[in-house]
Design a protein that fits this description.
- This protein has one domain: Rossmann fold (3-Layer(aba) Sandwich), CATH 3.40.50.
- It is 48% helix and 20% strand.
- A hairpin with a 2-residue loop joins strand 1 and strand 2.
- It has a seven-stranded mixed sheet, sandwiched between helices.
- It has 295 residues and is an alpha/beta fold.
- The protein is globular and about 45 Å long.
- GO terms for molecular function: 2-methoxy-6-polyprenyl-1,4-benzoquinol methyltransferase activity; demethylmenaquinone methyltransferase activity.
- Methyltransferase required for the conversion of demethylmenaquinol (DMKH2) to menaquinol (MKH2) and the conversion of 2-polyprenyl-6-methoxy-1,4-benzoquinol (DDMQH2) to 2-polyprenyl-3-methyl-6-methoxy-1,4-benzoquinol (DMQH2).
- It comes from Xanthomonas campestris pv. campestris (strain 8004).
Amino acid sequence: MGLPVALNVLVAHQVLAGAVAGRAAIVVPLRSWWRQQCDNPPMSESPYTSGTTHFGFRDVAAKDKQKLVGEVFTSVARNYDLMNDLMSLGIHRAWKRYFVATAQVKPGDRVLDLAGGTGDIAVLLKERVGNEGAVVLGDINAGMLSVGRDRLTNRGLVAGFDYVQCNAEALPFPDQSFDLVTISFGLRNVTDKDAALREMYRVLKVGGQARVLEFSEVTADWFKPIYDFHSFKILPKLGQLFARDADSYQYLAESIRKHPPQDSLKGMMGEAGFARCHYKNLTGGIVAIHSGYKI
C-alpha cells in the first residue's frame, strides 16, 4: 500500500482546506516521511483485481498490471522527460502548453493533476490559477512524485503546490473538490480506465472540466507505417542507448496501441457521467485532447 487510507484522506482534506496553518501542521512534517517512502516506492492497491488485462501487447492478470506498470515508471522516473522527448521527438512540450492554455481554468481555482509525474503540467497550471489558486500533483508512483517535487522545489516553486500519492481508480478526495481535473500521458497505464474516469467525475465540482492528454490513433494512413517504425524499431533502441532500458520503452510504445482510440474514449467519458464530451487531435492524431464537463 501507499499512504495508509486514513492518513491519505487526512492529507487530502488538509490540501483542500488551503489553510497555511493546516499545511504547516500536516503536510510539512510528512516531507521526511515522504522521502523515506520514495526510496522504496510503495504501491497502492487497485480495486480492479479480477480477470485479465493488457500490459503492452501481453495479457496479464488484472491484479498484476499495476505492479508491472509501477516497475516501468520507477525505472524511467529520472529519465521521464527524456522518454517523452524520444517518444514525441520533443513535440510533447508544445502539446502540453496547448493542453493547459485551452483548459477551462481561472485564477483562484483548485486543480488536480493526475499522473503528475515530473510536474511540468502542474507548473503550467499554477501559472493559470495564480497565487490564490492551488495545484495538487497526484501520482501512484512515489518515485515519479519525488522527481516532480524535487524539481519544483529546486526551482523555488513551493507555495500553492501539494503532492499526494494516490491511485486514479480510488482517489482520496471528497466529492466536488476541484474546478479542473487533468491527466496527461497517464490514462493508458491505468488498469481500470472506466473507474478512473468515474473518480475524476466524482471529485470534480459542478461546472468543472476534466481533460485527458494522451497518445492516440494516427489519422493519416500514409503516416501509420512511419509512426510504427519509429515506435517499435527506433524508440526501444533509443531507450537502450540513452536510458539503458529498452524493455520499458517497448512497453510504452505497445501501451499506446492498446489505448482506446479517440471515439471510444469519448464514449467512455460519457458513460462516466461527463457531458459535452469532445476531443481535438494534435499532430495528426498522434495525441488527442479529450474534454468533458460535470453539469
